[in-house]
TrEMBL record:
<dbReference type="InterPro" id="IPR016697">
    <property type="entry name" value="Aquaporin_11/12"/>
</dbReference>
<dbReference type="InterPro" id="IPR023271">
    <property type="entry name" value="Aquaporin-like"/>
</dbReference>
<feature type="transmembrane region" description="Helical">
    <location>
        <begin position="189"/>
        <end position="211"/>
    </location>
</feature>
<keyword id="KW-0472">Membrane</keyword>
<feature type="compositionally biased region" description="Basic and acidic residues">
    <location>
        <begin position="286"/>
        <end position="297"/>
    </location>
</feature>
<dbReference type="InterPro" id="IPR023265">
    <property type="entry name" value="Aquaporin_12"/>
</dbReference>
<feature type="signal peptide">
    <location>
        <begin position="1"/>
        <end position="20"/>
    </location>
</feature>
<feature type="transmembrane region" description="Helical">
    <location>
        <begin position="231"/>
        <end position="250"/>
    </location>
</feature>
<feature type="region of interest" description="Disordered">
    <location>
        <begin position="270"/>
        <end position="297"/>
    </location>
</feature>
<keyword id="KW-0732">Signal</keyword>
<keyword id="KW-0813">Transport</keyword>
<dbReference type="Pfam" id="PF00230">
    <property type="entry name" value="MIP"/>
</dbReference>
<dbReference type="InterPro" id="IPR051883">
    <property type="entry name" value="AQP11/12_channel"/>
</dbReference>
<comment type="similarity">
    <text>Belongs to the MIP/aquaporin (TC 1.A.8) family. AQP11/AQP12 subfamily.</text>
</comment>
<dbReference type="InterPro" id="IPR000425">
    <property type="entry name" value="MIP"/>
</dbReference>
<protein>
    <recommendedName>
        <fullName>Aquaporin</fullName>
    </recommendedName>
</protein>
<keyword id="KW-1133">Transmembrane helix</keyword>
Length: 297
């Protein structure tokens, strides 16, 4: 269990450092620079570092550390729960940033800045995590450091099947985010963590269930087994398509692009009552008969 303790210390140190970076950036930077760049960079770095360490435990833990699937899934759930509670509103995911843009909740410059911050954060997480592995603080880290230059692909199924899995899982994730939008973090974080844990348990053995193009590009695009174009189809086009379908199904349209509903028409729940003709001063003459073919005078 010494290797697990080292990994737990790594997770705690990652959360502490990223939280300190968020607080410092919030105190020193303007609101826009923090919200669109610093917060996203810190959140994506936190997510990327924990994902790399967790992937190492999933791949090497069962045969080198004796870790069972119940322990690993419990750890995944706890990590996702802490992520949801500490990200401070950051998406840390390009498809979530694109969803906000399509919902007209973010501007184009702000969205582009978020995407740049996410790319920077996940690259920094990869470099720092691999440096940590090189220290060899546990047997698993020594093995991972030796195996990392010759990493194997996270895609363990056919490309169309992998794209379908990533797209379907992203569809469920974004549909849940849309449904939980506006809810309190104390309710939203456990629900999203539980959903992602279930996704990791089902689709994880086949695609690693990244559901995050930036994260997938940092972790597996450099690994042998598939071409970059095949990785793009699975880990970029799949999640983006799933996000688009979720927004379209939930709203019936893409608010940034279309004003009218594309899937169904929304009828007003209030019916306008039909007005009954009011008799004029004459009493017996109907208004339509008295005014037929006549002007207002």
């Amino acid at each position: 269990m010494a290797s697990l303790n080292v990994s737990l210390c790594f997770f705690l140190a990652t959360f502490a450092l990223c939280q300190a970076a968020r607080r410092a950036a919030k105190a020193l930077l303007p609101g826009g620079a923090y919200a669109h760049f610093a917060r996203e960079a810190a959140g994506t770095a936190q997510l990327g570092a924990c994902c790399l360490e967790m992937r190492m435990l999933v791949e090497l833990g069962p045969w080198a550390g004796g870790f069972g699937p119940d322990l690993l899934l419990t750890l995944v759930f706890l990590l996702l729960l802490v992520h949801g509670a500490t990200l401070d509103g950051a998406s840390a995911n390009p498809t979530v940033s694109l969803q906000r843009f399509l919902l007209a909740e973010a501007s184009l410059p702000g969205t582009l800045l978020e995407l740049a911050a996410q790319t920077l954060g996940v690259q920094a997480a990869g470099a720092l995590t691999r440096l940590y592995w090189a220290w060899g603080l546990s047997d698993l880290h020594v093995l991972q450091s030796l195996m990392d230059p010759h990493c194997s692909s996270a895609l363990r199924t056919a490309v169309p099947h992998g794209a379908l899995l990533e797209g379907s899982c992203a569809f469920l994730l974004h549909l849940a985010l849309l449904r939980l939008q506006g809810s309190r973090a104390i309710h939203r974080a456990p629900a999203v963590a539980l959903l992602l844990t279930a996704v990791a348990g089902t689709a994880g053995p086949l695609t690693s269930a990244f559901l995050n193009p930036a994260l997938a590009a940092s972790v597996t695009f450099r690994c042998s087994g598939h071409s970059v174009l095949e990785y793009v189809q699975v880990y970029w086009l799949g999640p983006v398509t799933g996000m688009l379908l979720a927004v379209l199904l939930y709203h019936g349209r893409l608010p940034r692009l279309f004003q009218r509903n594309l899937l169904y028409s929304q009828k007003s729940k209030y019916r306008v009552p039909r007005g009954r003709p009011v008799p004029g001063p004459g009493g017996s003459q109907k208004p339509e008969e008295g005014s037929r073919g006549r002007g207002p005078w």
